[in-house]
Amino acid sequence: MASSTSLSPSVSKLALASLPTALEAARRLGAAIGAPDLLAKRDDLAGLVYGGNKVRKLEYLLGDAVARGCDAVVTFGAAGSNHALATAIYAKEVGLRCYAVLTDQVQTPWVANTLRWHCLLGTRIVPAAGFVESQAEAARLKASHPGGPDKL
Rounded to whole angstroms, what are the CA distances from 40 to 22, 29, 138? Predict the structure, then answer.
């Protein structure tokens, strides 16, 4: 028998997601793979502002940042990162600035649109050549953060 565990009451969480997400019959796909009762979990509907499974973890990450009195967050990804965009959207929604340390990515219409959204949101984009440089940029941001390193 599996035991149920819960998170410590000291873990901060913001209510960003609309949960639970719906299950929807995927009849054509199910028929094609021999699973006629296949269901698809609609995590694209999890967020009222921006959907996807990223909203679930952002409830905790941004909740922790707010609880610690941070005024900004740093996220990482490639130029078209859905995670970086979701972080920027929800950070703004809860009153946090967002720095996105972004590595290069093949320029597609999707990537260009994602970068436009960052501009509209006021995301502070920090370019980086790769993982090692991303870590160095994050350390630099933290050290030079106007609110102090403990606020980022």
Answer: 8, 10, 37
- Report pLDDT for 3: 40
Residue whose tokens read 């707010």? 66
Across 4-22, b (16+ Cβ under 10 Å) vs e yields eeeeeeeebbbebbeeebe
Query: Would you state the structure tokens that stand for residue 31, as one six-digit string?
Result: 């028929």
**Residue at token pair 């967020």:** 47
8 is catalytic: no
Residue 8: the pLDDT is 59
pLDDT tens string 3-16: 444 555 677 889 89
Which listed residue (3, 4, 81, 144) is catalytic? 81
Q: Which pTM does this prediction carry? A: 0.83
Handedness of CA 115, 131, 51, 69 (dihedral sign): negative
Tell me the β-bridge partners of 125: 100
How many CB atoms are located within 10 Å of the residue 132 CB? Answer: 9
